Amino acid sequence: MDVRHSSDGPAVIRFRAAGVVLLLVHLLFVCWLTLRPLDVPWMTAANFQPFAGIRADLALGPAEASRRIGEALLLLAPLGVLLPMAGGRLLVSPWASLARTVAAGALISMAIELAQTGVPGQVVDVDSLLLNTAGVAVAHLLVVPLSRSRLRRGNRAGAGDLYRIPNGTRPVRAESPQGSTPTITRVGIAP
Question: Fewer Cβ within 10 Å of end Cβ, the chain: N or C?
Answer without folding.
Answer: C
